[in-house]
Each structure stands twice: as C-alpha cells, then as structure tokens.
Design a protein that fits this description.
homotetramer, 386 residues, alpha/beta, Rossmann fold, Dihydrodipicolinate Reductase, domain 2, nine-stranded mixed β-sheet, 12 helices
Chain lengths: 386, 386, 386, 386
C-alpha cells in the first residue's frame, strides 16, 4: 500500500462549502489523512471546526501552522488552501517556505503578478503545486483531451464554452431575506476578498481552463466585456468574450451567475476539421463525439477505453460518477506527484493531467485580458505571454 | 370553406431544395393552389419542372409571368419567391407592380438599401409581403414569445442564440468529389448570387430573427467578426457576435456552417429576471421554462394552452410536428392576411406573428452591422435604425 | 407527373380528429385529391362538413356513395375509412364491392373473423387495402426494420414495447365536467362502436404492430391481462402481456391510457445477439443503435443512408419531420401500390413497407389472444395462425 | 465529532469489484474506519490484500475473525459482508453471534428460509443489519418515495420497473477469450455460489426493491418466467414478470443481463391517480414528475427541498453525485443506526430509509415466487407473507 500523505487545511471551517468537498475528495481514494488545520480566521470557530472533524492539531493562525508543521518530524506534507481568493498567495508562500506541497483552490490569486510569483516559488522550491480545477478530473474530460491530442477531431477550428448559474441573480449578498445574507455570496462579491473579478474569476476561469484543457490551445487575443446586472453589486456577475487562436481557430466564452434557471451548466464544444466533441458538466458520464457529416456517438465513462479515462474512474459502466470523484481524482494525482517528487523520480504518466500553478497563471492572464478589454469598451486585446 | 388562393412560384425547379418545401407548406393546410410558375431561369428546365408538377401555366421568364398573371382574371394572387438571394428584390418588385402579394424566402435581399425599397413598395402598394423565417412558425417558438410578452420571465437580461451546421465544412462547392459540386453550395457561396454574406446571410439571419422574435428585443450595438475557414471559399462560413441591448441586456450570437457534426442546430436561450427559456429547433415539440432557482418545466407543443401555440398546431399531444408544419404555418398566416387585405378588413389576430418584409429589413441591418464591425477588426458598432 | 388519385372519405366530419389527419396526409405529397365523402352518419353534419372542405360530392350514406362512385366514370379510386371501428368492415366491403381500393384506419375490425373476411375480399378482388399503422411510416422505424433484416443486431432475443397515454385517466367519456364528455372518449370506450378491446384495440395494437414490424417476428404465445382502472368504464384502459417467440425470444408489451403524465409514449426496444435498437415515437427523428458492450450511436433521420429511410423522408438533416409526414408516407405508398395495381405491374419495392389488411388480421389475432388469456386469469395461450 | 466506527470486512480481496466500492462508501462520509478483514478464502491472497489496504488486522478465516474481534476490547463494531451470496448467511450469523452489527451485500441469502433466519437472529440479538440496496441511497429515489408517501401522485395504479445490462450477453464465465473467464461472471453464474437465481437474484432483486421502496407497495401475486439465453449457462440471465397489487394496481418487471447495448439501465416509473414519476439510475441527479395531463417537471437533486433528499446529498445544485455517494449514504445511515442502538436510543428519523434484513427477506420472497411461477410455466402465483 502506498502510504497516506499527511494533509493540512487552511480555511474550510464550519459552513464553508468547498472545504468539506476538499476533505471528501482527499479521503475518497485513501491517499491523504487530514491531521492539521487552521480552519478559520476566527480562533473559536477554528477550534470548534477542528473538534467537529476530529482533527489532531488545530491552529488559530495559518502562519503559525506553516512554521510549526514545517518543523515537526510528523508535520503535514501537503496543505489544502480553501480560503477566499485574496489569501491564496500569502498562505501558499508561507507553506512553500516551510517545504510543504500545496493544493490550492481556484482562482490561483487575485492578480497575475501574484500568480507568477507563486509559480516561480513552486519551481524554485521544487514543490508540487496543484490547482483544483475540478472539472479536469472528470474521466470524460480527460478522454476528450486525449481524443484531441490523438488527432481524432482533426485541427481545432471552433471552441464554444459556457458556464451558467443563477444563484446570484438576486442580491443575495445583502441580508435582505429572512435567512440573512448568503455567506458564499458575501465573500465572492467582495473585491477585497475575491479580487477584482467576480463571476469572471469564480466560474469564468473554470470555463476558460476547461476549454484550454480539452482543446490543448489557448487563445492569442480576445474581445470581452464584464457586466454587473444586479444593482449595487461590487463585482461583475456576467462575462462574454470572443476568442481568436493563433492557428486561426475562433471561439466564444460566456459565464454568468444571473442566468435564471441554470444550476451549474458548464458546457464545452470543440469542433475540428474532422469531428466535434461536446461535454456537459451536469451529465459528466457522457461525452458526445460526432464525425463531420456523421452520427453522434454517445461515449460513456464506463466504456471508453482510453488510458486517461481508465485511470480516472473507479466503478463499472452504468454506475455514475460525479463531482466528488472528479475532485478526488485531483487529490489522487497530486498524491502521485508528491510521492514521486519526494522520491526524486518522475511523476507517473497517468498523473500528468493534474492542473497546477501554471494553469492558474494562464487563468490570471485571461482575467487580466478580459478586464482590460472590457475597460476599453470591449476592444480586441492580445493575451501577453512571454 | 375559405377559398384556396391561387399561387405562383419563381424558382424552385428540379433539384432545388427549398422550392419543394414551399410547395408542401403551401399545400398542407389547403389554403393555396399552385397554378403557375417560372421555375427556372433555364427555359427547358422550367418547362420540365412545371410538367413534373402538373402546373397549369409555365413561364420561361418571371417578368413575363408577372405581367401576364397580373393581367389575367384568374391570375395568381400571391407569388412564392424561392430563387437565389440576388433575385429576391427584382422579382418581388415585378410582382408587386402587378398587384400580386409576395411570399419570399430569406434573406430578404442582398443589401439593406434593396430591403428598404421592398418594404416601401409593399407598404405603398398595400400588399402582403411575407418572409419565410420558418422557425417562427413553430408553435413553441410562438409560445415562447407569448411568455416573454406576458412577463413570465421578467425583464430580459441575456440572449444566447446559435445556429450550427457542418455541411460546408469541406469545399463542397467545388467539383472535387465523384458526385460533382453540391448545387446548394454553389450558389450559396457565390457572392454574385448569395450576396456579400455567406453563413451570415444564410443562417445567421435565422438566428438573429429567432432571438428578436422571442425576446421582443433587437440589439442596439454589436461587435462581430465573420470568418472563412475553408480555403478558397468566397464568402464567410462562420460568424460570431456579441450584442448589447438598449435595456442593458447582453447577448451572443454564433452561426457556423463548418461545425463538424452539427446537422441544423438552432438553439435559443433567453434569461430574464424571473425565469429562463430554452428552445432547440431539432426538438421543436419541446420548450424548457425554468424559474430562477427552480425546476425546469418541459413544456410540450401539445399541452401548452397559449393562444399562439394553439393556433399553430394541428395534432394532439405526443404526435410530433416538424419543420414542414412550421413552414405551413407561415403560409396559413399569409393566406389569412391576404384574404383580410383583399376584403379590406384587419388581419385576424392569430395571423399577426407572420414574419414580413420588416423582419427582413431588420435582418439586413444586422448583416450590414456585422460586416462593418468585422471589417473594422471586430470593433463595436451601433445598429442604425431611423 | 404521376396523376393524382381521386379519393373519397367515409367518416371524418367536423370535430373528428383522425379524419383531418388523413386529409392532410393524403394531400401532403400531392398524390391524392379528395373529391367525395360521406363524412358523417348525420346528414346535415355530413353536408356541412363537406361544404367546409370544399368537397365536390357529398353523400348522406356510405352505401349510396359506394355504389354511385363505383359507377361514375370519374368516381373515386380509393376510399379512406375513418369511422369508429365497428363500421370498418361493412364500409370496406361495400367499397371493395364497387371495385374501389381501401385505406382504413386501425384497428382493422372488431373481430378476427371480420378481419379475415376483409383480407379474403381484398385478395379476391385484387384491391389494395392499406391499414394506417402510422408509426410504421416513420423513416427511422423503417430503417430499424432494415437493420434487423440485414442482421445488424444479430438474432432477436428481446422485444420490449410500450404505449402509454393519460387522456383516459379520468372518466372523460361521461359528461362530468363543464365541457361535457370528450367525443373521442365516448366512442372509443363504447364496445358497440369500438369493439370489445378498449386501450388494447386503440393503442395496444399499435404497439404490437410496431414490435412486429421492426423485429420481423410475431410471438407464438402470450400471457396477458387487460384491466379497467376507471370505475364504470365499459372497456379496458390498460393491458400488459408477456410474449414468447418461436425462436426463443422473449418480450413484454404494455399499453395504458391511464398512465398519468404520459402524452403518447410509444417506445420500442429490440435486443439481438449483436446489438440493440431503441425508438421513441415522441422523438421520431432519432434511432438509437448500440452494439453489445459498445457505445450508443444516435442515428438521425436525415443522415441514415438506408433505402427505406431515404424513400420515406422529404427534408434535409436537422429539419425535423413528424407524425403527419409519417402518415403521409402511408398514403404515398398506397398511391404507388394503387397505380401499380391499376397498371397490372408489380408495386415499386420502396412501397412494400405499407401496412395492409394482413397486418390488421395479425393485430386482431393479438387482440383475441389477449382477451382469451385475460379471461383465463392471465394464463399462457398460443396465438393460432393457420 | 461523532466517533468513527470500527469496521471489518469479509470478502473483497484484490480483484473484487464490490469490496472496493464498500470501502470507498464506508470512508466517504468519515463514519467508519476499516481495521480488520478476512478478505479472501485464500490465505495468501487475504494477507496480500490486507497489506495492500494497510489493514491493521488480517484473518485467514472469517470464523476466527468473528470470534477474535468479538472478544477484543477494540474489536470491530460492524462487519461488511461482500462475499458471494452463499456465504452471506453463515458469515452474518457468526458475526451476529459475536455481537457485531452487519452490513451485507445483496441478495441477502440463497433461500427464503435462510433469510428469515437471519432476520430473526438480528431481531433477537438487537443488532443493526443493513442490506446494501444501493439505489435506495440516491437522494432522488428517497425524494420519490417521499412524494408517494405524501400523496403527491395519488393512489398508485401502475408500476413499471426494469434493469438491463449486457455484460453477460456472451458466455464470459467460460475462459473462451484471450483474457480468460470474467471473474465476476464465474461466481455469479455458479448456482453453488450465487444461489438458484442468476440475473433474478443479481439485479432482478434490485429492480423489485426499488419499485417497492418508491411505491411503498409490494405485489400480492405475480406471473413470471426466468430464461437463459446463453447456451450452457447454469443460471437464468433474463427474467420477466407481471405483477398484481392488493389495491388493484398492476405492474411489470423486467431484468436482463443479455440486453445488448445496455450498461446498467435501472429504470422505474410509478403512475398514480394524480401524477407519474420516472427515475433512471444512469441519470441519478434527475427525477421526473408529471401531473396528469400536465407538463413534466425535471426535479434535480440539488434543488428538491424534501427532507429525505436533503439528508442524502452533499454538494450544491448542479454538482452531480453518483453511485458511490448513494452507496455511502447507506453507510452513513447504518452508522447513525448503530450509534443509536449502542446508545439505546431511537435511530434518527433521517436514517429510517436504510434498507435492512427485512427488505432482504422480501426480496427472497420475490425470488422464490418467480422461480415457482416460472417452474409452473409462468402461471400466476401468490407471494406468501405471514
């Protein structure tokens, strides 16, 4: 048996959505054991949350946690960062300073400069830095990428991606209703915590990453605009962009948190010179592959035979997997990479699809380009990469 | 029984796709009788086609047809124009000069100026001028519009429309294969026959019209680019646009004839402050209505009770209707309007959703704005309306 | 041009559902012209209905119509029988006596003996006798049959067919509500008009026929029971049956008119030793073909290339066809067979899939076997065929 | 934090499918810790499997395990039984004798008598005995039951349930191919290990249980036949049954492991006097609710607000859950019941939907009735319950 890695967590105290998801994901494939945490910036809440989880070591402060855990013989080997966005960078630096691998929620940081510094730090410190773009953990998303890489759809011509939700269609970040303000909404619409990008950073980056992941292409330029539909909201809740790729391909990206009726509709279509692919996150056990002029094939998670998909699934055909399994896949891949890094060997090939700090930097490039284009009235703008 | 109207046809000879569709549509509800035609610019082919259809009167030239039919006691009362786009305007003028109502295929004309002249002519001559934007004949498209008008989705915030095909993904307009060139492709990619807009004019205008029809809104400005993927093609085969509406709504429009795998995927989503609507032309017996934060309702053609849908359907729930019935609906509405016009009375309210020359003018405004924006590198541009 | 056949109609006066459908179907492909009718047993209503339709010749009595039309030089060449079931046989005999071809709605008759007599009469008189099992006119139903015949699914092992509606879930045949009794329900639940089988005859026979049509197999024995859920109803509104085939295949058939929520859900699945097929009448432009252990292929009406499907469709891929086009296909095939019969030549191969009096006889065998099994408490029973 | 329960496992060594599923399910909600196992009847394999899992205590023999663990201060509190069916009863008795709670895979046992003895034993020993009918762990299956219980569909009239797979469509239990025999198939088609029911016991019981769970009804009598399509197979691979309920409801059940193309298609429809429900295991985040004569509502896991569904889900709307989460739900419920039993208090209401030994007994009644009916040529037969 591969030894379980000792995991710590920063953020994710009671009431947080994504912290609980990270914990299940870490546990699902039995590759990590959660042993320490600074679960809240509020000391009492941190302690109570740690107790509720049966956590061995609880810290009131993540700086202390980083230094103490880094010094212990049995200290944590990796940290999961599930705080609001503005803390991703300082927390990650602190733990990397302590020689601890990082598994960080997206978006990576609140500015491109911050993100680039994190990437440099991880590279210099020779640490694994995973970024949890969950949807790239789905077996069929990986299969789609494998099909593109194998040339099955030909050269990519068109990329259409969208991510629609409706949970911010009303000003739920304000305590208007009987239940008070929605806590998730409060920090996600506060630029001081979420950064300058609202919907754009929260789900626009997911859409962008998914498109890049599957198409194996990033756009060269874009024209975009962010928009805020809900009066008084301090960040955008809607973004639309047109994309141009270096090879001549074209694309469109739409993300909205005010699309009435939409739950969590992340959809990608990629059309090449030979065939088209379609994936819908709400039906993750299906991938549609349609040859030009031909009939759609309904590929299923259980029956596709590609290596990438096989590695990322656990149960037989017809037994659906979901979001938590996709998330767990990232933890499984991160564990494989950490074990390899510690052993000084190459990471196993099946873990190569893990999204990392570099994907995060690309996401921040996208955010900055969209904001710049939008500020310029939606003018076309190159996405600079050195 | 309402008397059958005498119908003529220009274009639509053997091998033409849309001519046969118009003939079935005209016949389906028994409101027209096809009695005359100038079915081809080639005299022999015109004659043979007329004979094959059992047509009473065949003309080699549409100018002659217009003048002769206009003078006959039992001359045609309406003409269906199903020629390539460049002839729509001259043919329509000739028949209107002869006092004959017009049912014209889309796009209306090859320039906005041409279109505006047609609209003036129809108005001055007090003639019905129907434009066959087929998809607005679907019962559930009409129901969607009725829901929007009744405020059921609240104020419109987002419009997403797309129309994807793949039949032009290869240069089928050139005689490369064993079967020779695709005749439909030949004229549709020839700017002299189709006008300056390829995919944009052929299906982009359908998408635009559908969005406007259902949302009851037209955009105030747009940023767009047309693109030609297939080397050597003389018109665009792909168009993407971002839209801004006067009320602050935002939208995106995508149309492509090189989207590998797509058959005829025309999809519209409209999101308002209260609910969202979704329609897919390939499943025209369904309309999805989803309240904000709520559960999707699968509205069916047979069970919705709105007046507009009821008027536009023929068979009970669960007995699917399709494209030909939608097309027939336009003919049925046109017949009702023509009878009313001839009688000097107001057209029955249930025929008011017929698309007319004015919709065609708006479509040409869209085409010109897209081409101008695209020529300016995709810059934002107002859509001028006086 | 092939000459239009002169058609008459018995039944189908104002307010009748299926008569209007027959008229559209007859007209759609321009193969028939309706010129005479005995549209109602009520003389005034017959006359008014004929007038509303612009019918040349109206009869108060179908017996008179048969003899007069049979004697006229320009008399009808075919009659469409769209009366309640109990009249199918006498009307058909009368017109066959007059040398007139028959197009009859289903079920063929109210007893197997009646049906067998009709089959003998048609054979002896050398007349075409079409039975309008509409669903066999769908292009993809015909394609499914062609796939089975070509061995694409291997030997048939399992047949699952069902037909569910809910319009009889309440006692709508009684004038309980404000709107009075449902006229369709009144005769369909009256054994004197509909025959001894209610749901079984009305839609159970459609399900049975569809299964036989596609699988190219008829069961050797069955165990079945009919049931009446709605108190006071005089015929069955629900039927379930298990089937055994001579080759060892097994099957199940379910039909219900009290299945709350169902509109017109006719679904067939056929599984062979190599692959499975699935068809749903409410999505008639799709056929699912799934190889054993493989991925489903979504076959579409427009893109399948088989001869049978090609012959039965009118518009390009992605332009949906529906129920009326399927119905029209039967009329088109009947016209082809009548022209051939009149010319004394073999019917064209593409018309061979027309359902005829022989399919009706097989349907009556099924009805009688189900009723006998049900009367015997659901015991297994051979379906006798000589 | 609620203390993790110490769990042991019998069966589930390397290569076993369901053992790994049980382990993930037990771990997912952090309610159990696996500490001991007798993972294989082969001693070396048991040891290797335990080592691979990092298991604290490994036993070569489950009898020894039961007595040792029962005697230890820190012995296991519950045992997961994931052996072939014939061992369920003896293993369960042994652990119950040792005072250990049981979580057993289905079917419960290989005969009704065995099952009834287990139920008595559990009752007498006051032990929790969970039976893992996984599909009843889906949030929307529980919601469906809640809707039925609340009268939302009215009185149940019709139950249609089916479970189709194709993995046994060929004789994979024999070492014909290059890869040798399918291990899962070997024991599942061996009556000595699986019991007298093949497909019937393996998946027919799942279908039966699901129908009973949601409808809150069990049939009073049935007519059924099992069938073996694959030559040489020693158990059935196909079963069909018609059902009669005490309240007059009717139903059909079909299960097959030779349905070419089917992956794991477990579908249930329940129709009442007011509305219908439909659930498909391959799309477990959806439940369809359709009022009589009305429009289908697409209920989603994330948005339904019922207590039962809320208790059984972990992530927000639009983030799909799957089979493993449903399975984990049973473990979560079992943990709640065990804690309550140990504390001598009533189990929390939200755990009441856990399937238990009593559901297993009912499943064995069904098996015996089907086999008896089938042996009698498919004759109707009462299902005896005292």
């Amino acid at each position: 048996m591969t030894r379980r890695l000792r995991l710590g967590m920063v953020g994710g105290g009671e009431g947080a959505f994504i912290g609980a998801v990270h914990r299940i994901a870490a546990r699902l494939d039995d590759a990590f054991e959660l042993v320490a945490g600074a679960l809240s910036s509020d000391a009492a809440r941190a302690r109570a949350s740690a107790q509720a989880l049966g956590l061995a070591r609880s810290y009131a402060d993540w700086r202390e946690m980083a230094s103490v855990e880094g010094a212990r013989e049995d200290g944590i080997e990796a940290v999961a960062i599930v705080t609001p966005n503005h803390l991703h960078a300082p927390v990650a630096h602190a733990f990397m300073d302590a020689g601890i691998h990082v598994i960080c929620d997206k978006p990576l940081a609140v500015s491109l400069a911050e993100g680039e510094a994190l990437a440099r730090h991880a590279r210099d410190a020779n640490l694994v830095f995973a970024l949890t773009h969950t949807y790239s953990g789905y077996p069929l998303v990986r299969h789609a990428r494998e099909l593109v890489e194998a040339g099955e759809i030909g050269e990519v011509r068109i990329v259409q991606v969208e991510y629609a939700q409706d949970w911010l269609a009303q000003p739920v970040e304000r305590a208007a209703g009987s239940g008070g303000a929605n806590r998730q909404a409060v920090w996600r619409t506060d630029p001081a915590l979420a950064g300058p990008a609202g919907c754009l950073g929260d789900i626009g980056t997911h859409a962008y990453q998914l498109a890049a992941f599957v198409s194996a292409l990033v756009p060269a330029s874009l024209a975009a605009e962010v928009h805020t539909f809900v009066p008084g909201r301090r960040v955008d809740d809607h973004v639309q962009a047109m994309l141009r790729y270096a090879n001549g391909a074209r694309g469109m990206l739409w993300a909205s948190q005010v699309a009435s009726g939409a739950e969590n509709t992340l959809r990608l279509r990629v059309y090449g010179t030979k065939a088209g692919l379609a994936f819908d996150q709400e039906e993750p056990n299906l991938l549609w592959f349609t040859p030009q002029g031909g009939e759609a094939q309904r590929l299923t998670r259980g029956r596709v035979t590609g290596t990438a998909a096989r590695h990322a699934t656990r149960v037989p055909p017809g037994h659906p997997e979901g979001y938590l399994e996709a998330f767990a896949q990232l933890y499984r891949d991160a564990a494989a990479q950490i074990h390899a890094r510690e052993a000084g060997v190459a990471a196993p090939p099946e873990s190569r699809l893990l999204t990392t700090v570099d994907d995060g930097v690309e996401g921040l490039r996208f955010i900055e380009a969209v904001l710049a284009s939008s500020a310029a009235g939606g003018a076309w703008r190159r996405i600079e990469r050195q």
